[in-house]
Amino acid sequence: MEVETPAAPAAALAGDELRRFLAATISPDKASVDAAAAGLDRAAVDPRFPLAILAVAAGNGDQGVRVAAATYLKNFIRRNMEGSMSSSQLYKEFRDQLAQTLLQAEPAILRVLIEAFRQVVEKDFVKDNLWPELIPQLKLVIQSSNLISPGQHPEWNTINALKVLQSVVRPFQYFLNPKVAKEPVPQQLEQISAEILVPLQVTFHHFADKVLLSPDETKLEYEQLLLITCKCMYFTVRSYMPSRVKQILPSFCKDMYCILDSLDFNSLPEDGAMMRLKIAKRCLIIFCALVTRHRKHADDQMPHIVNCAIKISKQSINLSGLDSLPNRIFSLAFDVISRVLETGPGWRLVSPHFSSLLDSAIFPALALNEKDIAEWEEDTDEYVQKNLPSELDEISGWTEDLFTARKSAINLLGVIALSKVGPPVASAASKRKKGDKSKGKSERSSIGELLVIPFLSKFPIPSHGEDASSRALRNYFGVLMAYGGLQDFLTEKKELTVTLIRNRILPLYSMDPCCPYLISTANWVIGQLAICLPEAMNTSIYHSLMKALTMEDMEGITCYPVCASASGAIAELIENSYAPPDWLILLQAVVKRISTGDENESALLFKLLGTVVEGGQEKVLPHIPEIVSNIANALMKLLPPVPDPWPQVVEQGFTSLVAMAQAWESSAPDENRKHEKRVWHSGQSSIAQSFSLLLQRAWLVPVEHMENSCSSFPPPSCVNDASVLLEFVMRSVTCMEETSRMKVFELVPIWADTIANWDSWEEMEDQGVFNTIKEAINFHQRFDLTGFFLKILPSQSENGSQSSVIGRVSNFVTRAIAAYPSATWRACSCIHTLLHAPNFSLGTEDARKAISVSFAQAAFTHFKSISDSPAGIWKPLLLAISSCYICYPDTIEQVLNNYDGNGYTIWASALAQVSSSSFGPGLSSESEIKLAVLTLSTVIERLLVLSMGDTKVLQDCYVSLMECCIQLKGVQEDGDNDDDNDGAEDLDDDEEEEDTEDDDEDSEDDDVQEETEEEFLERYALAAAAAGESIEVVEEGDLDEETQDIELGSLDEVDIQQVVLSLMQKQPALQAQTLPDGLVEKIAETFPEYQHLCHVRRQA
């Protein structure tokens, strides 16, 4: 990899003008930035542009300009990598020049250019394997670089060269073909291992000795070399095990043991020790990978790995004075032990250390320390996230990404507790299933019973009045953390759980004063054990949690973590069907706390309120109108006075109101229960009034507030949830007087303004908007007697444009068509509603035509982008265009042909394909089939006018038309039988469920052998294949949306059979078309009145 002077033409291109453009891109002036970006885009057309801009990045000018050049190059490569950046020869020249530049680049430039190089490597070397000279040249560069061979090529920086190697090996950390069970090691990775990693191990050993033997004289570059080499090794073995790496594995591990053994946390790490800690972290990550993925190659190293990890973990007593990186190292040390313990050999290696691990490593990591207390006061959210982890719901040696020493220690404790005396025949992870009551019947005793519980019982409950400095209190904090980690173990020991709750946890709530550090952790433990709590303790447990939920700050100590953990525990209990003795008292306590607590607490309590409403169901329903009123009043006080984005507490409040609205609507009684229906309607009206007042406060901002605000209006906050509330209001209105009282005609234009230019698309966050669009059209049909929704209104958005409510909503729908698959289905469904349901008068027909054109353009554009192969998402797009076409045939035909010269026939052919009986998922609902028949009939007439009677597209349309007619008749006849079939299906489901339960019982005592590497790889491949299939389904859209009853308006009244019969009679040219014999017979059977026409077809 020889370093050359950049070619003259490239240098010529990288002149003053190119530098001037790049300098302007970092200007604070937006106009200058835009002009410079346009100039660079124009220059990028030149085939030598990549070389030119690389020359600027590698030059000697202003560093800001060079970083800008490197950044532009990185983005340029990302945009053009899959296409052709330039000619083959120029591209190879650029690729080599980029690699050479990296060897000498300064760190600021290297960081950016290495990302550009990574994209080149992934395509050319990893994916296409078209860079055979890369590894031999990189090997030469590394061997001749400044640290490894001083004096040979001082310009070749070893650190830079190793970072290039890191980029080359990085893609191999994942299986390239994960669906293949026994994928061989890629040839490229074998080459890297043989030519670079094997020789590099000698270098690694040499520099490790230097660093360890002369710590005072250590150069930062030496440690950087060790760190990058460790990263390269990790990427190499994370998934694969190259044959040559097996040979150097013992030597490489030996050097890593020495590095790890050198760590000493008895004193604070010095400033220069950060790099050493990063190396240690990477070594432990490598050990995790070896134990998890390469058991048969790592078995010989297991004793040394265990000894290293245990030695580090026993220094956890010093955690209080250490920052995040040492904490992560302790976390990894615990994780390594957990993983080893899940293996057969691991038991023999780790079990002799159980007692000392518990006493000297795990428990010190769990006990309260000074850092916890400081974090409690300075960053309560961080404290809750670190120390009261809601995600710790499965204890396993294979758990990843725990990140903190305490979480990893809890996990290790859980793995130890579940271990049986003697080597396991199955991994603990494979035996456990949360809440599985049939497990734990092995005859062997568990370490939890023999060691863990007796050890924790040694620590007494602190005496009344002890403060946070008390050793007894700090230790008991650790005991509670340990109980939380024993969730899976205690689930199998119901009697022990009852004893612990009664004697070791509930007494804490009776202390005077209560200790917030202990109470918050006790709340968390109760939440962790929610799945196995006895009903007999219901009252005591809820009484204790309610006391914690309402605990006030004391003596300068905030009780937010107490409230947070109590809220989380109550939610866990409810979600596990552990109901409170009195739902009303719980609701009142939550609502009162919301109105008096701070914003952080209120945000948590809003979440809890949603859980309570969903869990309480009919027991909570009578109280919902009053709760909604109180919550709406609280939110009105929290809303900002100007239209700025709303705070999180307001967003959580809106989410809880949505849960209450949905609960109320789902509880509507049958019409024949008149008294209950009157009561329900009264509650619905009260809720709608509260929602309306809240939305008025949120959206109808006084003009004087707008004058001094630079914010956009309406605020783009809670759009989905606010839409759901508005939908509820519109659905609740029963008379014109209510529309005025609830200010619906004032709220709807503001809402339409909000969604008109919406661009923050999220699948789960937009569904409420689509539903509200349909409800708004329904409201328009019922109460918009003056056509207000179709009138042009001034907008309060930033651009100040004028448009109607229907126009604004249509703008949202148009943009949604290509947003994401589910949005395509929903948007297309709304298109039918917007075109066929509104009361368009003669004066507003132009508006209808305009949105039809907009919809057709967007739908056809998106269809063309995905038209390479048939897909389920074709159907909604083509039917949406059909609705537009039925309204304005000539206009839409012109729109399609303007986009593509053959756009009309392309669409017609695709519609015929989707409408045919062979397409899946095809037309299914009655309304879909009706629309297809009407459209195909019109298309066939048009094709005949265009003299296309002998074309394949007309033949396909005609066949699909007749198939749709037959299908429509069948759907109409069979529609009444669905309810009967549902009952039979339910019966089948019950029987299947019983069979499954029997199977579970039969297999309860089966021995489960430890998973072999081959079994792991096969399971991994099957999971990858399943994931791929699910992704394909998601990309096509939600399965439950593939059958939709679409709005047809007056078209629904058209006599479809008469339309088709008329077409067949009026168009003699159709008689020249031949139909399949089977289809002709079906037509004759289904429509006897077509008998004479079918006969004509047979003769033809």
From TrEMBL:
Q: Which InterPro entries match?
A: ARM-like (IPR011989), ARM-type_fold (IPR016024), Importin-beta_N (IPR001494)
Keywords from UniProt, A to Z, are: Nucleus, Transport
Quote the biased-composition stretches of kind Acidic residues, using this chain's numbering.
Answer: 973-1013
Q: Which domain of life is it from?
A: Eukaryota
SUPFAM superfamilies linked = ARM repeat
Q: Which residues form the Importin N-terminal domain?
A: 40-103
Q: What is this protein called?
A: Importin N-terminal domain-containing protein
Q: Name one GO cellular component term.
A: cytosol
Q: Which residues form the signal peptide?
A: none
The GO molecular function terms of this record are: nuclear export signal receptor activity; small GTPase binding
Q: What is its main location?
A: nucleus
Subcellular compartments: Nucleus
Q: Which GO terms describe its biological process?
A: protein export from nucleus; protein import into nucleus
The species this protein belongs to is: Panicum virgatum
Lineage of this protein's species?
Answer: Eukaryota, Viridiplantae, Streptophyta, Embryophyta, Tracheophyta
Region described as Disordered: spans on this chain: 972-1013
